Amino acid sequence: MMSRVAEHCFWLARYLERAENTARVLEVNQTLLLDFDVPFEQQWKPLLIISGIHDFKGPFDAETIQNSLTWDRENGASIVSSIGHARENARIIREVISADMWERMNYYYLWMQSAGARDLYDNNRADFYNQIKRINQLVDGIGEGTMLHGEPWDFFKLGKFLERASQTARILDVKYHLVQSNPKLAATDLENAHWTAILKSCSGYEPFHKQRQSLEPRLGVAVAEFLIFDPIFPRSIVFCLEMCREKAHAISGRPIDQAKNEIELILQALLGQMEATTVDDMVHSDLHEGLTAIVNRTHEIGAAIFQTYFDFKPEDVTQHQSQSANGQTQSQTMTKTEA
Q1: Are the C-beta atoms of 104 and 139 separated by less than 8 Å?
Q2: Residue 238 lies in a domain
Q3: For a surface tag, which of 74, 81, 177, 324 has the fewest beta carbons within 10 Å of its beta carbon?
Q4: What are phi and psi of 182, to 5 degrees?
Q5: Greatest pairwise CA separation for the chain in angstroms
Q6: What does the alpha-carbon distance between residue 128 and residue 234 come to, in Å, rounded to a whole number?
């Protein structure tokens, strides 16, 4: 498969997942903490850090931050930017994705430019953010049912789960550190609200409580364990990294136990390290440092994917075409000789 197609499939999924994650954390902050008097440093500033924005220029108030993370086209982490980039990647590979997938992606891109989207944002923000979440879910579901499940689909899923692993690690890192570094929150309703917010920001509130019927005495540690290590929750870090490994080997064609390229080796090492670690180990040694290391490793995986599959220079293409031609000539020669 051409590296151009692979790269656009990969980034289409990443941008869709990014838009959904941004909408979810905004919606949770908007609705869940309304009943509490939460200082700005605890409620809205963490969202900037989760989005990788450390030099925010605008006023530090809730409305400005929500507007920036939703509508600012110059903010690469905003919802409108993510959907715009997703649509552009989809447009370039229209011959690869299904017509239904493209039509739905284009429909929501145009909807984001409409007065209707602005009206919904102004009048019912929770419904607006829920609509954004459904964009990713609908496009992903349509692709699941209508797109050929070959290499392009493997790259799509690789991008989706790499982005998801990074986002879960970022959300848990920032929010866990916020709660644990503030002793005034201990054993308060606000502390429980923050743990609930962390779970809902990762779509984990309902699955967490289905697994754990009673309130944990160490709720924060239990939440961290669930979001990091749960093997069947589709947004846990371990689950996402396992899916990345599965897709990386599907693309290379190697068995899961034979890691050779840099992508496979990083995933093998990271998953092996996590398998030998418990949440108590991470908390004892500094959970913030451990989660930051996971985020950094996802960046390394992204860089390795780029170098392995996408970073083709013109001379590489010429060399590849020459090798392919030589291989075809040799194959034809062997056939004639055998004949």
Answers
A1: yes
A2: yes
A3: 74
A4: -120, 95
A5: 84
A6: 24
Total domains in the chain come to 2
* Same domain assignment for residues 192 and 236: yes
- Tracing tokens 């509490």 back to the chain, one arrives at 36
d(CA 74, CA 51): 14
Tens-of-pLDDT digits for all 339 residues of the chain? 578 999 999 999 999 999 999 999 999 988 766 767 777 667 788 899 999 888 888 788 889 999 999 999 999 999 999 999 999 999 999 999 999 999 999 999 999 999 999 999 999 999 999 999 999 999 999 999 999 999 999 999 999 999 999 999 999 999 888 888 777 877 778 888 888 889 999 999 999 999 876 656 688 899 999 999 999 999 999 999 999 999 999 999 999 999 999 999 999 999 999 999 999 999 999 999 999 999 999 999 999 999 999 987 655 544 444 443 344 333 333 333 232
Q: Which residue has the tokens 């992508």?
A: 263
Q: Which residue has the tokens 């709660």?
A: 179
User: DSSP string covering 275-321, please?
Assistant: HT--HHHHHHH-HHHHHHHHHHHHHHHHHHHIIIII---HHHHHHHH
Which amino acid type is present at position 158? L
What Rg do the C-alpha atoms of the chain give, in angstroms?
A: 22
Per the confidence metrics, is the pTM higher than 0.85?
yes
Same domain flag for 115 and 157: no
Distance between CA atoms of 207 and 201, rounded to whole angstroms?
13
CB 128 within 8 A of CB 121: yes
